[in-house]
From TrEMBL:
Designated name of the protein: Zinc-binding dehydrogenase
Entries under CDD domains matching the protein: QOR1 (cd08241)
GO molecular function, one term: oxidoreductase activity
Domain Enoyl reductase (ER): 13-325
Database matches in InterPro entries: ADH-like_C, ADH-like_N, ER, GroES-like_sf, NAD(P)-bd_dom_sf, Quin_OxRdtase/zeta-crystal_CS, Zn-ADH-like_protein
Length: 329
């Protein structure tokens, strides 16, 4: 089979190489799928650079989430059969940027019929992260104001749709006119282009100086620091990631005097500590997809040969929306 492999660490376009390798075999609790869609995510970039908290042994194939058709199941797998259309998180080193990939059975779920393969491939990481962040960690309520940074990115775009589905007023922050149009298509009530507007001032203006009840921040650094200037009384700032490259230090005296919460979210831990909640979340996401409340907006469907370029453009911050590799197309 053909697969992109990383043999050394660095920028994706430099270190990803398309090679021919043997098709993997499933372990006792694994499944092998023919990949029909694999979404590019920022963790793929960080793993190529060697900067992610998960550091797979070299060489490895990136692509942490995917959709595919089951072609083989391990001896201890129950409830999953050859021919099933599934989605989930890949089991590295056999990631999704290949013709075939491996998934742990515990992280393999039925793909929602309402979504095509490319859309289903983009449902797992971003939407699970958004659902746990907004509902389990921040307890977002209908009628509250949600501020989403990087609203045209993978996890940000999911948070916009999930926020709208929960009845919140959603403010999306993006960088550039093209990304602003994408955020509006996602359903954001207010879109702020940070390249030409000060999001702190806009948030204060549209909330009558009250501020946002929940801030969804996958960027970090100065974005986090400035978000503390427009957080509401008893607001919650969700620390989701540090795509901006800088890990800020929180001023706890500021949190004290303004009475807001700083809430961390590492969604991957739920797979170990509360897997039943992950299954429950997938059921809810499937219901929302069937109702038309959520749908990943896939902006690029790339052939297998082109995905390294897509991952590099994601790394450079020039992609808009979800970029998905479709090897079987």
């Amino acid at each position: 089979m053909q697969a992109w492999r990383v043999h050394e660490l660095g920028e994706p376009a430099r270190v990803m190489r398309l090679v021919t390798v043997e098709r993997p075999e499933p372990g006792p609790r694994q499944v092998v799928v023919r990949v029909t869609g694999a979404a590019a995510n920022f963790p793929d970039v960080l793993m190529c650079r060697g900067l992610y908290q998960v550091r797979p042994t070299l060489p490895f194939t990136p692509g942490i989430e995917l959709c595919g058709e089951v072609v083989a199941v391990g001896d201890e797998v129950a409830g999953i059969a050859v021919g099933d259309r599934v989605l989930g998180g890949s089991s590295l080193p056999y990631g999704g940027f290949a013709e075939y990939a491996v998934l742990e059975a515990s992280q393999t779920f039925s793909a929602p019929p309402a979504l095509d393969d490319a859309e289903a491939a983009a449902l797992f990481v971003g939407y699970q992260t958004g659902w746990f962040g907004l509902h389990r960690r921040a307890a977002l309520k209908a009628g509250e104001t949600l501020l989403v940074h990087a609203a045209a990115g993978g996890v940000g775009s999911a948070a916009v749709q999930l926020g709208k589905a929960s009845g919140a007023r959603v403010i999306g922050v993006v960088g550039g006119p093209e990304k602003a149009e994408y955020a509006r298509a996602l359903g954001a009530d207010i879109v702020i282009d940070r390249s030409s507007e000060d999001f702190v001032e806009v948030v204060k203006q549209v909330t009558d100086n009250r501020g946002a009840d929940v801030v969804y921040d996958p960027v970090g650094g100065d974005t986090y620091t400035r978000s503390t200037k427009c957080i509401a009384f008893e607001g919650r700032i969700l620390v989701v990631g540090f795509a901006g490259g800088d890990i800020q230090s929180a001023a706890l005296n500021h949190a004290l005097v303004k009475n807001y919460s700083i809430v961390g979210l590492h969604w991957g831990l739920y797979n170990a500590y509360d897997p039943a909640a992950v299954t429950e979340c997938h059921s809810e996401l499937t219901r929302l997809a069937a109702a038309g409340a959520i749908r990943p907006l896939v902006s690029e469907r790339l052939a297998l040969a082109d995905i390294a370029d897509g991952v590099q453009r994601l790394a450079d911050g020039t992609t808009v929306g979800r970029v998905v590799c479709t090897p079987a197309a």
